[in-house]
Design goal:
By secondary structure, this protein is of the alpha+beta class. It has one domain (8-175): Aminopeptidase, CATH 3.40.630. 28% of the residues lie in helices and 33% in strands. The protein contains 5 helices and 8 strands; from the N terminus they run E-E-H-H-H-E-E-E-H-E-H-E-E. It has helices at 23-29, 33-38, 47-59, 108-123, 138-146; strands at residues 8-9, 13-16, 66-73, 79-89, 92-99, 128-133, 150-160, 166-175. It has an 8-stranded mixed β-sheet, sandwiched between helices. Helix 1 (23-29) packs across helix 3 (47-59). The longest helix has 16 residues, at 108-123. It is globular, with a radius of gyration of 16 Å. The protein starts with 7 loop residues before the first strand and ends in a 9-residue tail after the last strand.
Length: 184
């Protein structure tokens, strides 16, 4: 059943399990219109919602299929975002991430994605890592490409928006046998 949460770091960002004290920073980050637009978070996003998110993401370590990390500044410990690996099959996992507005434009998401990518391939039998973005979320697509993922294309009607309408998503994938991505 599960495993003890681990810590991953490249000296610039550190990925660790969520802690209850992270809830205020999660609340602040999730007031951002871009997160609300591209991540299916409840609206309005309240302090209670943030506490529930932190508790659920910490509990991801109790099972076998979910692994969630708080993305933090390696020097200050400041919460910068979140990244998760969702095991969808024995050989395949889906990755997802978001960054607080104050963390953008510094390569944080790319560093976090590379850490999870490398850790996933080193410690599991996963063959495929994938992620998808809204077509308008070009910044997240650039993160995937910088982390070595390949753009596979658009899946029409893949997801539903908040009103239940179909929306397209752009898919990116990386196979264990693909060439390694360039370093940080």
């Amino acid at each position: 059943m599960g495993e003890e949460p681990i810590v991953l770091s490249d000296g610039v960002v550190t990925l660790r399990a969520f802690e209850p004290d992270d809830a205020p920073a999660v609340l602040g980050a999730c007031q951002d219109p871009l997160i609300a637009r591209f991540v299916p978070i409840p609206q309005p996003y309240t302090a209670q919602t943030a506490r529930g998110f932190v508790a659920r993401r910490r509990a991801d370590w109790d099972g076998e299929t979910e692994r969630s990390f708080a993305i933090t500044d390696a020097l200050t410990g400041e919460l910068l975002g979140a990244i998760a690996r969702h095991r969808r099959a024995e050989h395949r996992a889906e990755l997802g991430y978001w960054l607080a507005p104050w963390a953008r434009g510094r390569g944080v998401a790319t560093r976090a994605l590379r850490l999870v990518r490398d850790w996933s391939f080193e410690t599991t039998g996963l063959v495929r890592l994938e992620l998808f973005t809204h077509p308008d979320n070009e910044a997240s697509g650039r993160v995937a490409l910088r982390a070595g993922f390949y753009r596979e294309g658009v899946r029409r009607g893949w997801d539903l928006d908040r009103e239940g309408r179909p929306e397209d998503d752009v898919f990116y994938a990386l196979l264990r046998d693909d060439a390694r991505a360039p370093g940080p």
